[in-house]
Every structure is written in structure tokens, then in C-alpha cells.
Amino acid sequence: MKNENVTVIAGCGRLGAHMAEVLLAEGGGVLVIDRQNDAFGKLGAGFDGILLNGDATDLGVLNEADLKRASALIAATGDDNTNILIAQLAKSLYNVPRVIARLYNPARRSINEALGIGNISPVLLVTREIADALNIMRNEEAE
Amino acid sequence: MKKRVVIIGGFHKVKSLSASLMNKGYTVTAINANRANCELLAEIPQLDVFYGDGTEPYILESANVQDSDIVIALTNSDADNLVVCELCKSKFGVQKAVSLISDPDKTEFFIKMGVDSVVCEISSITSIIEQQAFLDEISTLVPIGGGRIKISQVQIPNDAPCVYRQVMELALPKNVLIGCIMRGDEGKIPRGDTVINPGDVLVLISANENESEAHRVLLGRDAV
How far apart are CA B67 and CA B93, in angstroms? Predict the structure, then answer.
């Protein structure tokens, strides 16, 4: 049985920490993994998700996180290739249904896409936002 | 046509591996993300060197990895090595990808992800050291439990009485167990119906001095 509501977040950086708080506020279960205990300081004082201090590329740590029963995993460490490794472990060894990797560099997306892993690339998102904002400004000028 | 090998990452290993491969007639290219390493590698005659991050598709492309027969990922990051191999195979159509790995637990996973050959430094070195220990000390390898338990190995000659018999037929003394059978490159854990072949190497675990009796049962004589 999949635990419908637990999302495992690998990497408690700015994205991981914020994501954890948002998901928790939405009523889901959250487990955050980070190699450095200090990283958990980014989480608000009221955060009541589960914290796991360890290397999220280590199978022992992923077992401890009960990744097999998680409904989603977000790979949000600071290193793209580490995120690819974690996402692929989650997808192909632990059969996590929904897996997303944050990739700063979109050039390596294809190897994750082939496995059904979602990729979020900040550069692409921000580029689109800026392009949209420029278009809106241009339209306003035209009016 | 000469076969072409591209090696990504590594330094000392690249030096000796490229020398050995070029000696065998391969064309070798090295990609390295460290500039100082690149300069030193560039001093090796006939070795093509590219400076850059080999996990970046554009670097792989500029090194013409698509025209290579084998890629070997030797960085010290398992994640980087996985990405190199996956990119080379799926994006550049390279036939064979070999990866070094530091975490032995991920060996199977790498193979599942399409890496053709995975070399784990730690398990390889451990097993070599183990084999050396076996060679030097034919009979007793590891005394444990204050010497009451012994792990020993026995090579089975063609004429041994146990050849072509099932493990359960052997009248091994109490307190002796065949823990493992090494046959060729493979290690098998025997079951009762496993048949002993000539040339097998049996690893025995024995307690209370029953080891020599076991040798008599298996070999028909005392072990050397």
C-alpha cells in the first residue's frame, strides 16, 4: 500500500525547505533528508515534518526514509547529477509514483524524461516568466 | 578501423589505462574537468585531451563521443559517472559504457540503468586481497572465535572421491559446512543437491578441529 500523502524531499536547501513547508501547509506528510544537520535550520520553528540526517544517495538512508511507501520524491540537492541519481533510484528501485528533479542545467533532462521523471529547470521557468512579463509591458505600452 | 575509447574523469587511472589501451592499438581520448590534470595528461603522446565537464552534453559532443566504441567513466562521483554513461548511451549512441563506482550497493542499479559494466573499486580490491590471502595460506584462512572456528579452502582435483556427488551425499563431519563453491569466475552458495565438479574450490567453515576429517571426506586423503 502506498502511503498516499508522504513526499520525500532530498536536500534541505532553499527550495527543499520552502517546498517542505508548502506541502505540509497543504496537509501532506513530508520527510526531508539532508547530509547536514544545520540545513534543517531553514525550516520554520513550527515545522512538524520528519527530518532525516543522511546522504540521500545512500540506499540505507532511502530505506530508512521508507521511500518504497512514499507517494512522491523531489530531488532538490544543490548538484544536478546527484539529483538525477536520487530521482532515478527513487523511480527504478523504489517505484515511487511521482518523481521530480530540480536541474539547474536543462541539457541533461532527456535521461530523466526517458524514465518518466519530471524535471524542473529554474532557468527555463524564469526565462518564460521574464518573457511573459516583457510581453505584458509591451502590450500595456501599445494600449 | 581502430577502436576508439573515451575516458571521462580520473587522473592516475587515466595515465595507466590510456597507456595500456594505446599499446593494444586503441585510439584514446580523455575528458577532464581539472585544467592542471589536462595539461599533465596532454604530455602523453597520442592521447587526445579535452578540458571540460564530461557530464555536459556539449563537452561530450565536442570530444566526438558519438564516434567512440567505448566510454569509461572514472570520476570520483557515482552520480557523475551514472550521468556520463546514460548520456553517452542514450544521446550519443555509444555501444558500451563502463563505470567506476565507489558505493558497492549501487552496482546492480547501475546495470539496471543500462551501464554495461560496473567496476567497484572497494569490492574489487577487497576480493583481490582476499584471493591473495587464500593463495598464501592454502588450508586455514581465517580463525575466528578464538580459533575454534576456521574458514578454509579446498581445491577439488579430478580424482577426488566427492567429484560428481551431491553435497547431501557427502558424509561430512558434524560442525563442517561448505559455505561457498567457487567455480570459474563464479561463487555459488551450495544446496543439498548441488553437484561438486572437478576444479571447484570449496570454502569450508568448520568448528572444533573437524576440518581435517572434512578434508579426508572430500579428497580421500589429508590436505597438505
Answer: 9
